[in-house]
Amino acid sequence: MSEAERPLVLLVGGATGTGKSSVATEAAHRLGITRVTSTDFIRETMRAFFSPRAMPSVHHSSFEGDPLVETFVDQTRNVVVGVTAAIERAMTEGWSMVLEGVHLVPGLVPAEIEGATCVHVVLEVESEDVHRTHFQLRDAATGGTRAMDKYLDGFEEIRRIQELIVEQAERHGVPVVESSRPERAIAEVLELVEASGDRRSTRVR
User: Fold this and answer.
1) Which of 10, 25, 103, 131 could tie 98 with a disulfide, CB 3.0–4.6 Å?
2) How far, in Å, CA of 107 to CA of 15, rounded?
C-alpha cells in the first residue's frame, strides 16, 4: 500500500477526567475523520456478551478494582481484544479512525498497526485541583448523568491510574500531553499527527 493510501489511526489515552473525549472529537473533526469511538463503548459491548462471572473485570469502572492496578490491567487486557478487533475492521475497510479511552495504555496496545499511520498520545492533568474541576464541569455539562460524586470519591484511585498510564507512556516512548488547557492539547495532538508524516499523504475518510 502506498503512503497516499495509508489510513490514520489516532489513539488518545489517559485517565478518567483528562479530557480524552473532547480532545479526540475535536481532533477528528479537524482531521476530517468521521469514525470516532471509545474504549468505554467497547467495554459496554463486551458486558453484553460476557457475564460478571465470566469476565468480572469489565463490569466495573476502571478505578474501582481491588487490588486497583492489577484489576485495571486485567480489564485493559480484555478491552484491548475489542480495540484490536475494531482497528482490524477499520484496516480491512481502509478507514481512518480515532479511538479514545483509559484502556489505551502504552505497552498493552499495539505500538504499530500494519498498513496504517498510527499516532498514540496520552493526556495528563498535572494539577490535582484542575483535575477535580474537570469532574465538576462534566457533571454540569451532562446534567448530572455522569455523577460527580462517584468520580470525586474515587479521585485518589483515578490519580493512581493516571500515574500508571503516564509511567507506561514514558517507558514506551509515547508522547504525554498536558491537557489542562484543551485547545492547547488539541493543537499538540495535531502537531504530533503532522510530525508522523506528510498529512497530505494520509488518506482520511
Assistant:
1) 10
2) 15
Interatomic CA distance for residues 203 and 9, integer angstroms: 11
Q: Is residue 45 assigned to a domain?
A: no
Residue 55 lies in a domain: no
Minimum mean pLDDT range among 5-14, 38-47, 196-205 = 196-205
Is residue 13 within 8 Å of residue 122, measured between CB atoms?
yes
Number of domains composing the chain: 1
Cell numbers placing 32? 476530517
Distance CA 180, CA 25 (A): 16
Q: Is 112 left (phi over 0), alpha (psi -120 to 50) or beta?
A: beta
52-82 per-position pLDDT tens digit? 888 888 888 888 888 999 999 999 999 999 9
CATH of residue 113's domain is: 3.40.50.300
Burial of 15 (0-12, 13-18, 19+ CB in 10 A): buried
Q: What is the pTM of this model?
A: 0.89
Other Cβ atoms less than 10 A from the Cβ of 115: the count is 13
Q: Which residues contact 124 (CB under 8 A, 6 or more apart)?
A: 14, 15, 18, 162, 165, 166, 176, 177, 178, 179
